[in-house]
Every structure is written in C-alpha cells, then in structure tokens.
C-alpha cells in the first residue's frame, strides 16, 4: 500500500505521545472544516437515494455539466483504470501515489513523468494523469494548457485525468465546467477544503458514457445517507466557503513565511499546504515528531509537506519546534 499522511495512532505508539497531544500537519486537510450540524435520526435507517438533491447542488458548486458522486475520489482512482484496455499511462511525478499504483494494478504500463515532460507525454501516452494543483509539490497548470493537452489526447482516443483535490480555494482554475468533453475526467473531493475526509465523498466530472460505465462498476449505495446529507449541506453553504477561502489563503501565506524564516524555504504549495525540499527531510520529520508534530516526508526527491495548524496555539507550537531545528552535525550529515 502507498504511504499517506495521517496515521496519528501509529505515530503515537512509535513516539510514546498520546494521540490527543499531536499536531497533525501531514494531510493538507483544512483544520477548520465545515461545521457539521446534528443529523436527523432518520438518515441512519434509510438507504441512500439518488433523488436527494446531492447531484444538483454538486453540479451547481462545480459548474459541471455532468458528474457522479463517489465514495471519495479514491473510489474513482481505483476504478477508472478498469474502464480502458491496458495501455501507456503517463503519471505526474512526484504526485499522489495512488494514481500510479491503481493504473499499474489494472495492467497498464505507467511512466513517471516530470512536470517539464508532460507536454511531450501528451503525444506519447494513451492516458495522462496529474493533479492540479499538484500534490505534493503545489505546481499549477493553467486551464488553457490542460485543455490543449486534452485535445491532443482525445484526438487519439486518449484521456486526460485531472485530480483537483486541492482546487477549491481557487475554483476559477477548475476544469469541471469543461468535463462534458469526451476524454476529460476531473476528480473532486470534500476531504481537503471542506475538511470532511471522514465522510468519504467525492465526485467524478466526465462525459455521460464514461460516467455510466463507472456507475455500473461501483454499484448502488456506495455513499452512506448521512455522508450524502453532510456533503449537500457543505456544497450549498456559500457564505462558509467564502470565509474559508480567505482564511486559508492567509494561512498559506503565513506558513510559507514561517518556513522561509526557519530555513525551510518552500518551493511550491497552495492555500492548504507548503512543499519544502530539503536533504534533511528524514531528520527534520523525526525531530518534529519527537515534539508531537507530524509532517509528511517524501524521499524522491527528499522534501517535506506541511499543512496548516488549526489555531494560534498550534502556530506557536510549530514556530517553537522549527526554531529548535539546527543544521546536522558532521556525523549526522555523513549518515
């Protein structure tokens, strides 16, 4: 299984720090997510119904001509490769590891593609898969460039798959309004911006035939009634969304500046996380963990991804821990 952020219980056992005492910055999830109200008791004893209005409120939010609710975008990531015969798939690297793993499991030949090679890969791949903004590096691709790649792929019967899990703070850059075009697949999730990762709700925006095939593979009732109810409420709460975008933009700038002052200058990021390449990634991750702060480490290339603290106490705690970081000793550097 690919490694992901989170895992507080595992970290608690390893470092002997109770789970409640951890500051988890490893996931990029909004720490001040949409406030879930009390749910009606009836939602627990009713089967999910597609006529509950979720699809329409999601289409309005994403400006998507067509979409399919799924049990988190992970459900689509694992299922989409089964809709094509094995072929050549270019996947942005570094990127969200589940994409490459899912296409490989389905028998496709997967090429790890650096961002600067995507332009050429649009002419040599049957499918091109990327995240925008990219997770974990934060690199962005203008919609016009992505649509240009899509046209080239679609002309040969190919697909462009764009994972927009971190797009909500900048909705004007989304490809969802174009997702009715054949060969364009856009994935969205309520896990990051809305802070509802536990609800497991996502959406696939694509053309009608592809969505019908995907629906057939996923089967009925794959999103629980309470999760559908929560998702519809969050997507319809435009006032909360506006406040969250302002708050997250300020938090992203604050985190970028804090890391820069601490000698971990970010080389990319978005409103929900910052990407800091450093040869000391493993050492720094472990030293922060000893203070109960969990961050995500990457090895290829060595880097850290840090999300936002949820309150002022968390910000002060991160600032103090970063201030204690010192350059490695000659012995550490040689290891």
From TrEMBL:
It holds the Pfam family Aminotran_1_2. InterPro entries: Aminotransferase_I/II_large, CobD, NHTrfase_class1_PyrdxlP-BS, PyrdxlP-dep_Trfase, PyrdxlP-dep_Trfase_major, PyrdxlP-dep_Trfase_small. Its EC number is 4.1.1.81. Pathway: Cofactor biosynthesis; adenosylcobalamin biosynthesis. It catalyses: O-phospho-L-threonine + H(+) = (R)-1-aminopropan-2-yl phosphate + CO2. One of its GO terms (biological process) is cobalamin biosynthetic process. Residues 67-311 form the Aminotransferase class I/classII large domain. One of its GO terms (molecular function) is pyridoxal phosphate binding. Its cofactor is pyridoxal 5'-phosphate. Keywords: Cobalamin biosynthesis, Lyase, Pyridoxal phosphate. Decarboxylates L-threonine-O-3-phosphate to yield (R)-1-amino-2-propanol O-2-phosphate, the precursor for the linkage between the nucleotide loop and the corrin ring in cobalamin. PANTHER family: HISTIDINOL-PHOSPHATE AMINOTRANSFERASE-RELATED, THREONINE-PHOSPHATE DECARBOXYLASE. This is threonine-phosphate decarboxylase. It comes from Sedimenticola thiotaurini.
